[in-house]
Amino acid sequence: MKHMNNVALIAITAVAAMSAVKADTNSVGDTNSVGTGKDVKAPVVAAAPAASPFNLNISENYDSRYMFRGVNEVPNTGILSTTFSPIWHITANDTLTVPIWYATAVGKTFPNGLQNYRELDVPVSYTHAIGNWTLGAGYQLYVYINQPSATHPGGTGIQNEVNVNVAYTYKTGIVTWTPALFYYYELGTVNNYTYGSVNAGSSFLSPQLAASVPLNFLKSDGSITFNPNVQYNFSFAYNDGSYNNGALTKPYSGANNFQVQLPITWQITKLVSLTGYVAYSYQGANLIQTAPSTVWGGASVGLSF
C-alpha cells in the first residue's frame, strides 16, 4: 500500500485559501474529497477559514475498494478510514500540512489473513504559491499492519517515500481548472521489519487534470460542486505484475493506468461538508490482483476547525 498525491493537493488548497491571487478559486480544494491527490485516502474537508494561521480538518470516509496508483490493494472488500489533518499557514504563500490517515479493511481479503488489514500513513507536505503556480515537496511514512498477501498471512511493515509536485490553477467562466504533475520516489523499508510493498529506488509519475464546477442549478450559493479529476499514470518499477506460477513477475515499468474520479461535494455549513463519488480505473499492464477495469465509489463527511 502506498500513498498518493492528496497530501500535496490538500496543501495546495490550504495555500490557495490564504492567497489573495486565488481568493476566488478556493473551490479547487473540493477536488481533494475523493483523492485527487491520494485516491481513496484523501480527506473530505470543509473549506478552511483563511483568517487563522492554524486549521484542523477531520474526515470519516468509506470506500468500496482500496484502489491506489492503479492497484486494487485490498481485494474483495472496502475500507473505512479517518483523516486528521492539521494545517499551518506559515505565510500567505507557504503552508505545512500533516494529513495523518488511518484505515482498516471492512472484511477479510485472503483465507490465510489473521485479521483485517490496517494502515497508518504519516505524511508531511510543504507547498509554496507563486501567483497561480504552486510548488510542493513532501515525505511519507507508511505503517502496514497485517498486510494481506497471496503467499503469507501478513505482518507489519514500514516504508518511506518522498515526492515533489507542481500545479497551476486558473478559471474559465465558473469552472476552476488545476493541471498538476506529481512525482514519487521510494526510499524503501526500515531494518527489523518484515517488508515494504515497494522496492527502494522505484518511482511513480502522475499527470492530472482537476476541475471544480459549482452546481448552481441545485443551490445558487455555489455550495454544491462537481469536482472531476483525470489521471494518466506511469510506473517506473513501482507496481508489480500478476503472480506467475506462485511468483511475482518483475516490477513493471511503463504506462500504469488511466483513472477518472467524479465526486460531488456539498458544503453544508462553513464547518461541515459531505461528499459522494464514483470512480473508474483501466490498466492494461496486468497489475497484481487488479482487473483491467475497476469501478468503485464511496462517501465522506468532513469537519473543519
Write the layout of secondary structure elements.
Blueprint: H1 6-18, E1 54-63, E2 67-68, E3 71-72, E4 79-89, E5 94-97, E6 100-105, E7 118-130, E8 133-145, E9 156-168, E10 170-172, E11 175-189, E12 203-214, E13 224-226, E14 229-240, E15 243-244, E16 247-248, E17 251-267, E18 272-282, E19 293-304
Antiparallel strand pairs: 1-4, 1-19, 2-3, 4-5, 4-6, 5-7, 6-7, 7-8, 8-9, 9-11, 10-11, 11-12, 12-13, 12-14, 13-17, 14-17, 15-16, 17-18, 18-19
What does this structure look like?
- With 305 residues, the protein is mainly beta.
- It has one domain (6-304): Porin.
- The protein is 4% helix and 53% strand.
- It is built from 1 helix and 19 strands.
- The strands form 3 sheets. It has a 15-stranded antiparallel sheet that branches. Strands 2-3 form a two-stranded antiparallel ribbon. Strands 15-16 form a two-stranded antiparallel sheet.
- A hairpin with a 2-residue loop joins β2 and β3 (71-72).
- It is globular.
- It starts with 5 loop residues before the first helix and ends with a strand.
- The model is unreliable at 1-33 and 42-49 (pLDDT under 50).
